[in-house]
């Protein structure tokens, strides 16, 4: 329990202010006559009446904004009011969509709040408590209802926190209340809450002065905390955003100009270092990509409101991040759960970016109407302007982000369209998972194959480490050993690196392949290769091949969204059994020596939440070149049809049978369309005339070839 209370003289605020500013003339005059309490009153009057952009809701349109969120954002408003009512009772449950670490069990403090409380050994709960996002809910509840209970809870809790949590002598990350990341987030949340509650009589001149003193302490603390690690970490961005907001909302501080300049420099530097050339954040987690993005957007919005010009290169980089998010998103508008990420809807962020940059394509990815959070940010004028901004279809469907190692295949932008996301990029630090060659698959309105999420960040929970392992992803392993060694919540030892990524996109197909070096350090090195071919708009063809000198067991892992999964004996065909939703059939091409099983597992679609799911594992023993091939065939709700799949022999043009270690072919028969496809995969790059093969009387030359037979005609396409 944090019981020590420090005594803060509100009069100390005057030493922090530039009293030569004309706006503070009455404050200065009162001080010159030794009327310190009157000076506090004048400061309070000035701060709560100033016309700083973004500091208060437009009084003449406030009721229109309230009416709008009541009419169009009822669910979000209900969640905000519920949170505000709980916080009045000192009950805390972190449930907002972009709360980084949500909680499931409410915690109530019957007496004073213990700001260092750690339930169930999860320190992230204490960190969330000290970020004070829930005070924004109190502020909005007060702005909507005018009830002083909300303002009283805010003022009492804020003063209690200030009194019981003195700033450390130097920046530290060993504190539950004063880690630098919390300090940065607090600044933004305090300022936002203050802007809604500033008219309450409970925000007294004395309390406002104490708040300013604490915000100044936060600013100094953040200004001194920047290191080389912060330049590469999302922490540096979140902290800089808080410092920038403090500098701009309180230009009366003598340090404000210095903080503003520091912030501008740090924003440019963190964006340059952390955002890769294709617009994706280097930490390889959509959640943290989006946390960084929203902080950058906040800074651009605030700078524009105050007539400041941030670097054009910086703003372009931020817009590029938002475009990457648009293409990253699944047809249901949710981000992949790559790395330490949750199953979050990103339309609010695209709405924000679309309106801020006046970008019609980003507007397409956002909400049809401005959502709750953005309505509060931009006011009713923004709501009306967003309505007038025309949405424009993105220029591409499938997209590669080769620099960061992300590849997206899709058939369109409707929620029923087909989508596959493939990852072949670097680990991304502590928030990364052992997920090289992982893919997500979504079709006909449903997640079918998915990442399992993160669950939590506590080492005392074995599941945290398990969900980071290779086998917890839709990828491959060798001899039951992961290609990247996970040591604890944030650390790795042996880290696999991506190799050999290739991407081809065409209106009729998409193709991606990738490998990694995760098993090359073994005494008998193993070289995995994953190839995925999308025949639009029907199905994917998956080929996993492995090369080694000695015998190993090679395994594929498939993790399904919650629902029933079954595998047939003999054929080893694996099917989901969703009665009213889309389904997936996994159809092995050859089953000789192939083992398959389905087991029960868990999935974590948000922090601290677990749900049951099922997963399938296919395994094959062998040496030399060994391959496992499947057709991945999604079915819309109610469809029972699955194509027929069989292996096809391959011959050289000179007549000799080609060994499977060199090349293989698969026939896929669609009786209802009177059509069949043959896909030929060469495990060795064709390099001589002898590698010109004959398949079903068709001579070909290529590494990946598609032969389509329909309407009595055969069409040959060399894909690679």
Automatic annotation (TrEMBL):
Keywords on record: Lyase, Periplasm, Signal
Domain Heparin-sulfate lyase N-terminal intervals: 13-349
InterPro entries: Chondroitin_lyas, Hepar_II_III_C, Hepar_II_III_N
GO cellular component, one term: periplasmic space
Location of the Heparinase II/III-like C-terminal domain: 395-613
Keyword Lyase part of the UniProt annotation: yes
Annotated compartments: Periplasm
Protein's name according to its UniProt entry: Heparinase
Organism of origin: Paenibacillus odorifer
């Amino acid at each position: 329990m944090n019981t020590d209370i420090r005594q803060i003289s509100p009069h100390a605020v005057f030493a922090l202010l530039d009293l030569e500013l004309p706006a503070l003339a009455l404050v200065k005059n009162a001080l010159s006559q030794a009327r310190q309490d009157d000076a506090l009153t004048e400061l309070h009057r000035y701060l709560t009446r100033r016309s700083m952009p973004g500091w208060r809701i437009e009084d003449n349109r406030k009721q229109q904004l309230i009416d709008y969120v009541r009419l169009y954002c009822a669910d979000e408003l209900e969640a905000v009011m519920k949170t505000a009512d709980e916080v009045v009772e000192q009950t805390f449950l972190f449930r907002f969509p972009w709360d980084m670490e949500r909680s499931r069990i409410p915690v109530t403090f019957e007496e004073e709040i213990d700001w260092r409380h750690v339930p169930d050994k999860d320190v992230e709960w204490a960190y969330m408590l000290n970020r004070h996002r829930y005070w924004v809910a109190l502020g909005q509840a007060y702005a909507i209802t005018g009830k002083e209970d909300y303002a009283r809870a805010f003022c009492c809790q804020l003063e209690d926190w200030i009194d019981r949590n003195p700033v450390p002598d130097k920046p530290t990350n060993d504190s539950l209340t004063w880690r630098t990341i919390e300090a940065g987030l607090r600044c933004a949340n305090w300022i936002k809450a203050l802007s809604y509650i500033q008219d309450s009589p409970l925000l007294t001149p004395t309390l406002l002065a104490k708040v300013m003193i604490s915000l100044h302490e936060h600013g100094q603390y953040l200004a001194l905390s920047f290191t080389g690690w912060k330049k590469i970490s999302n922490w540096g961005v979140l902290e800089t955003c808080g410092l920038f907001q403090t500098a701009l909302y309180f230009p009366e501080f003598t340090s404000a100009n210095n903080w503003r300049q520091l912030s501008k420099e740090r924003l440019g530097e963190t964006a340059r270092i952390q955002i890769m050339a294709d617009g994706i954040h280097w930490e390889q987690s959509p959640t943290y990509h989006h946390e960084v993005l929203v902080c950058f957007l906040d800074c651009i919005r605030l700078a524009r409101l105050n007539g400041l010009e941030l670097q054009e290169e910086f703003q372009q980089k931020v817009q590029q991040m938002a475009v990457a998010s648009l293409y990253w998103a699944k047809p249901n508008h949710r981000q992949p759960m790559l790395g330490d990420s949750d199953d979050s809807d990103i339309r609010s962020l695209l709405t924000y970016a679309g309106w801020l940059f006046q970008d019609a394509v980003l507007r397409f990815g956002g909400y049809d109407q401005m959502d709750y959070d953005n309505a509060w940010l931009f006011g009713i004028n923004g709501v009306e302007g967003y309505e007038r901004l025309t949405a424009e279809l993105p220029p591409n469907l499938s997209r590669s982000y080769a620099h960061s190692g992300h590849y997206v295949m899709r058939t369109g932008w409707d929620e029923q369209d087909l989508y596959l996301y493939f990852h072949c990029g670097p680990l991304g630090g502590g928030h990364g998972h052992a997920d090289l060659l992982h893919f997500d698959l979504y079709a006909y309105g449903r997640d079918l194959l998915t990442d399992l999420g993160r669950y939590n960040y506590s080492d005392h929970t074995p599941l945290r480490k398990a969900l980071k392992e290779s086998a917890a992803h839709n990828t491959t392993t060798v001899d039951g050993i992961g290609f990247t060694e996970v040591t604890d919540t944030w650390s790795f030892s042996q880290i696999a690196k991506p190799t050999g990524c290739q991407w081809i996109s065409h209106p009729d197909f998409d193709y991606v392949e990738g490998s990694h070096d995760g098993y090359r350090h073994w005494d008998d090195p193993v070289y995995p290769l994953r190839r995925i071919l999308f025949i639009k708009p029907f199905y994917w063809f998956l080929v996993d091949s492995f090369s080694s000198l000695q015998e190993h067991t090679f395994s594929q892992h498939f993790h399904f969204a919650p629902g029933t999964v079954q595998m047939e004996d003999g054929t080893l065909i694996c099917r989901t059994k969703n009665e009213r939703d889309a389904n997936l059939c996994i159809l092995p091409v050859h089953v000789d020596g192939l083992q398959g099983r389905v087991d029960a597992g868990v999935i974590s679609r948000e922090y601290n939440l677990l749900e049951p799911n099922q997963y399938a594992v296919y395994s094959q023993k062998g040496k030399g070149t060994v391959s496992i091939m499947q057709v991945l065939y999604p079915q819309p709700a109610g469809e029972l049809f699955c194509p027929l799949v069989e292996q096809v022999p391959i011959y050289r043009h000179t007549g000799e049978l080609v060994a499977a270690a060199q090349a293989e072919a698969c026939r896929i028969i669609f009786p209802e369309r009177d059509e069949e496809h043959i896909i030929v995969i060469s495990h060795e790059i064709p390099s001589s005339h002898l590698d010109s093969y004959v398949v079903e009387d068709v001579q070909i030359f290529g590494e990946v070839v598609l032969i389509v037979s329909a309407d009595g005609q055969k069409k040959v396409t060399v894909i690679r």
